[in-house]
Specification:
Helix content of chain B: over 70%
Order of helices and strands of chain A: EHHHHHE
Helix content of chain A: 55-70%
Strand order of the largest sheet of chain A: 1-2
Structural class of chain B: mainly alpha
Order of helices and strands of chain B: HHHHH
Largest interface: B-C, 47 and 42 residues
Distance between the termini of chain A: 9 Å
Structural class of chain A: mainly alpha
CATH superfamily of chain A: lambda repressor-like DNA-binding domains
Oligomer: heterotrimer
Number of helices of chain B: 5
Number of domains of chain A: 1
Chains: A mainly alpha, B mainly alpha, C mainly alpha
CATH topology of chain A: 434 Repressor (Amino-terminal Domain)
CATH class of chain A: Mainly Alpha
Number of helices of chain A: 5
Radius of gyration of chain A: 11 Å
Shape of chain A: globular
Strand content of chain B: under 5%
Strand content of chain A: 5-15%
Radius of gyration of chain B: 18 Å
Number of domains of chain B: 2
């Protein structure tokens, strides 16, 4: 699923490893989600939303 | 409960899967009778080619199963099926290991080729039934 | 290295697996020596035959616990996929060779190798599965 994670990450100057640590997942997980190859579950999506202080729909987009 | 609301994709996958298993069984029986009735020599490349013939639909079965898992869009059903397959795998591998040691120490006869596949399929189906029933 | 996961559940998995395999070697040695020297029969024979199988089944339980305890859903997805490939590979090899054994004069290989091939295919498939998500 397309998402703005890379942009949001860059705005805060976080590396993938930083984000992974905050989410308590592995760096590969963050990379897979960012590249749109893996969709996070609802709990993880909510974690992301809370972390970036944005609604889920502004981070992820299911439009082609 | 399970069979009523299958999607077209699920119904087709199930039909293909059943046909594949049936084909494997039929070819196995055919080849078995061929070897027995013809008193065919068990040596040589022709024998090996014939013996490998039942493997083809069987490998097709595995490919079908993997393709289904990759394409099933209903994530709940996919998760349930994966769970049942893993539980079936566990039972099958446990059976394999115990049978191997019994064979080694107690000299029981070796199992036919499809034995562990049958165990796997039956165990997975039972696991799926139990999982779906307890999830309601 | 890929083999040693760096999640909490992954480390617990490795710390549980190692002693399980040691217990397997111990039970195997016990069963082998008693069968070799004393040729037991009856219930004792069955018990001794099953003894080395128990820690091997335990290793499967350890993997199962790892799958259920892994909180990183991506890693768990990779693990489940590799287990499916492990089983698919093991059943394929076992069945194909079984057909050769049944119909031709192929040498008999212990069914134990199905278990071995499960681990081999599970391990080998992991880097390929991970590569899909790059």
């Amino acid at each position: 699923m397309k998402n703005r994670l890379r942009i949001l990450r860059a705005e805060r100057n976080w590396s993938q490893a930083d984000l992974a640590q905050k989410l308590e997942v592995s760096r590969q997980s963050v990379n897979a989600i960012e590249t749109g190859k893996f969709d996070p579950s609802l709990p993880l999506a909510f974690k992301l939303a809370r972390l970036f202080d944005s609604p889920i729909e502004s981070i992820f987009s299911d439009q082609e | 409960m399970l069979n009523k609301n299958l999607s077209r994709f699920q119904r087709r996958s199930l039909a293909l899967f059943s046909a594949s298993i049936l084909l494997t069984a039929l070819i196995t029986m055919f080849i078995h009778d061929y070897f027995r009735l013809q008193h065919h020599s068990t040596h040589g490349p022709l024998a090996w080619t014939l013996a490998l013939l039942p493997s083809l639909p069987f490998l097709g079965t595995i490919v079908l199963a993997l393709r289904y898992i990759g394409r099933e869009r209903d994530e709940y059903i996919r998760a349930q099926i994966l769970l049942a397959l893993l539980q079936g795998s566990f039972i099958t591998l446990a059976f394999t290991v115990v049978y191997a040691f019994f064979e080694n120490y107690l000299k029981i006869p070796s199992a036919p080729a499809m034995a562990y596949v049958d165990v796997f399929l039956i165990a997975s189906m039972i696991a799926l039934r139990i999982d779906l029933r307890s999830a309601q | 290295m890929i083999c040693i996961p760096n999640s909490k559940a992954g480390r617990r998995y490795v710390y549980r697996l190692a002693p399980t395999m040691l217990v397997y070697l111990l039970f195997l040695y016990i069963a082998q020596s008693i069968f070799h020297h004393h040729h037991p029969t009856g219930l004792l024979a069955y018990f001794l035959a099953v003894l080395p199988a128990l820690p091997l089944i335990g290793s499967l339980v350890v993997v199962g616990l790892y799958v259920s305890e892994e909180s990183d859903e991506f890693e768990r997805s990779i693990l489940v996929q590799s287990m499916i490939w492990g089983l698919g590979g093991a059943l394929s090899v076992g069945t194909v060779w079984g057909f050769l054994e049944d119909f031709t004069n192929a040498p008999h290989i212990s069914i134990f190798y199905v278990y071995v091939f499960f681990w081999i295919f599970m391990g080998i498939s992991q880097p390929f599965i991970r590569h899909k998500y790059r």
